[in-house]
Design goal:
By secondary structure, the chain is an all-alpha fold. It has five helices and no strands.
Length: 104
């Protein structure tokens, strides 16, 4: 899927909401739905949201590696579990991913 161009106004609104998520400030359900709508269609917004969620859950950096991991958008923002080929099916592992990332 080709990424849609975000207008400057939309991008700024998304980044403001995502910034509140990262800082653990209150975010309304309608704002969360708004962000998720774009995250499901746009890889950049999806990445911004994952970083914010990771930052929200982690809080302050624990190690010197944390900022690098965050910049590279590595690691799951929800838990420390990664793909285990002896236990997990690759298709199931990506089932929660946005449509542009899932296999066809």
């Amino acid at each position: 899927m080709i990424e849609e161009m975000l207008t400057p106004t939309t991008r700024l609104r998304l980044q403001e909401i995502i910034g509140r998520i990262a800082d653990s400030h209150p975010v309304s359900l309608s704002d969360r739905i708004y962000v998720q709508k774009f995250a499901d269609r746009d890889a950049s917004v999806w990445s911004w949201l994952r970083r914010a969620q990771r930052s929200q859950r982690r809080g302050a950096s624990v190690t010197d590696l944390d900022p690098l991991m965050e910049q590279m958008d590595l690691g799951d923002p929800f838990d420390g579990k990664g793909f285990d080929p002896s236990r997990d099916d690759l298709g199931d592992w990506f089932s929660g991913a946005p449509s542009w990332l899932r296999r066809s």
